[in-house]
Design brief:
Elements (H helix, E strand, L loop, with lengths): L8 H8 L11 H21 L3 H9 L4 H14 L6 H4 L5 H8 L6 H9 L6 H10 L4 H14 L3 E4 L2 E4 L1
Antiparallel strand pairs: 1-2
Amino acid sequence: MRNFRDFAPDERRNYITLSTGEYYPDILEDACRLYLPVLETFSGMLHRAESSTALFMNIAQAPNQWMRIQLSRVFRKYVSPETPVEMLKKKTQAEKICCDFGDGFRPIHIVQERFDSRPLPDEALCAVLWEYKDRGKKGYDLTDKFFHLCGCNMARSGNKATEI
């Protein structure tokens, strides 16, 4: 197995820096284009909801997984920052989340007021959501590099590494 010192200096940066990152505010145009439909959908759900709990239950019913996760992230920012992100991703946990965290949900009229006070698209929120976009990719890249370093003949299948 190669040691870190065996790599040339220009190779080392590939194992220290997992992501090149993106410049701010350069990402705003793409972020707003990607997340405007999410914010519009959230706005519609928000203004139809009679309570924050009802809002979350409606979000949990969104049929598209990507949209549901994005709506849950917006919900967390406006309604329930103490709710664990990973719990919000599981639609089967919606009732449990409401039972466990519902008392801490911001009242719906305040959420509506705060949401309506922001421009649409909200560049600040779009930038925050953009940061989630490639979350997890760094870990997969590191895993691939690890197996390559070890000389293992591995390939990823879904979220699980399997030997070829």
